[in-house]
Amino acid sequence: MRDEALVEAFVHDEQIVRGERFYRLAIAGVRLRPYSLWHQLLLEAMESPLVTPGATVAPADMQRALAVCQCRYPVSCFTLPVTIRRVWSMLGGGFSRHLERFEAYRKDYISFPDYSIWTPPLSSGEARTPEPDLGPPPGILALFGDVAQFLRSSDPGSVWNMALGEAYWYRAMGQRAQGKSLDFMTAENRREQATFETTHPELHAELLAVSEQLQQEGI
Amino acid sequence: MGNLIKNNQFGQTYEFGLNDADAPVIPGLKVRTLDLTYEPEVNETAQDGEGAVESVTTTKPDKRSIKATATGYISNLSQYRTQTASFTFDGRFFIIGPVKEPRQKGKYVEGSVEAVSYFGVTGA
Asked: What is the span of the domain harbouring residue B75?
């Protein structure tokens, strides 16, 4: 059965220009490359509101994000040449249209696998050994490391320039290769859960509350 | 009784709808599947003077013990974590044993408990 999340992660709305992949729609005249780990890192580095949920985005933030998403590892570009046409297109309704397109662009490359790692049940009286309290590496670098290890890649660029969604799927496959038991949500599971929202609204709310509680506990 | 999706000499697997009245009642867990595995409670051999097995005593099929794994969505985390209860299903009394760690399953959280039923133990 077709898995929408997998298809979204690997199949994109793109065009080839001079042998290189670009997102099909240019935004404010800027051709964007597949949204990659490198773009995510740069946008996080500049604390862009475009990768901060709920933050207000200004036209200048959008300009910088477009500059970032047109480059490839190891080039960091934060500015675009100022053109009257681009400045004009950022004004009024043009800006919100660009914002929508940019979100659609990121969404095309960000489709994560939905899975959990299975752990065997504890026997009665048995206690799980707590993991040592180690400082984790920065999230995007941990993802880079996991993917590079799984693909046995000696070329950092090939991983940094990989579409973000693809990288998460490869990480999952890397965990599977390490012997972890992964439990993936299937398309059928997703459809079933979507129906519960309407068929059992009260129970649905209870189940969601448990999910939130678990996330607050950091599990 | 739920929807019987597997049935053979080793056990059965039942599937239940969300909030199905036929599903086993386990505190904090809305059971979706119940996996039952049968095994003889007694399986003893007797040997003759030379050590060869000359007779076997095994539990009759209708008196076998049943190991159960109930899996479903967690509706109350603290109740789920502090399982001390038992449940009945298909006329058998099950004692809840190990409880699996909760894990995210799509929008919800999935949990799983293991239980055992002995033919002669019919209540708490």
From this structure: 3-117
Radius of gyration (Cα) for chain B, nearest Å?
17
Residue-level pLDDT at A125: 62
Partner residue opposite A193 with nearest CB, options B74, B100, B108? B108
Judged by CB atoms closer than 8 Å, whether chains meet at B97 and A213 is answered as no
Gap between the Cα atoms of A141 and A201, Å rounded: 40
- How far is residue B42 from each of residues A130, B12, B92, B93, B119, measured CA to CA in Å? 38, 21, 18, 18, 11
Indicate the domain borders of chain A. 4-109, 138-216
B123 belongs to a structural domain: no
What is the C-alpha to C-alpha distance for residues A167 and A147, in angstroms, rounded to an integer?
Answer: 6
A126, A183, A210, A217: best to mutate for the B interface, most B CBs within 10 A: A210
Domain count, chain B: 1
Asked if B107's CB is within 8 angstroms of A123's CB, the reply is no
Q: Which of A53, A33, A159 is nearest to A106 (CA)?
A: A33
- Residues in chain A within 8 Å Cβ distance of B97: 123-124
Task: State the nearest Cα–Cα gap between B82 and chain A, in angstroms.
Answer: 12
Q: What residue has token string 């901060």?
A: A52
Q: What is the pLDDT of residues A67-125, one digit of tens each?
A: 999 999 999 888 877 777 777 777 767 888 899 999 999 999 999 998 888 776 666 56
Q: Give B30's contacts in chain A (Cβ within 8 Å).
A: 203, 207
CB neighbour list of residue B20: distance below 8 Å, 6 or more residues apart: B2, B31
Tokens describing residue A130: 């707590």
Is B69 inside a domain boundary? yes
Q: Give one DSSP letter per residue of A159-194, joined into a string.
A: HHTSBHHHHHHHHHHHHHHTT-EEEEPPHHHHHHHH
Task: Please give the Cα distance from A161 to A39 (Å, whole number).
Answer: 8
Q: What is the ipTM of this complex?
A: 0.78
B61 part of a folded domain: yes
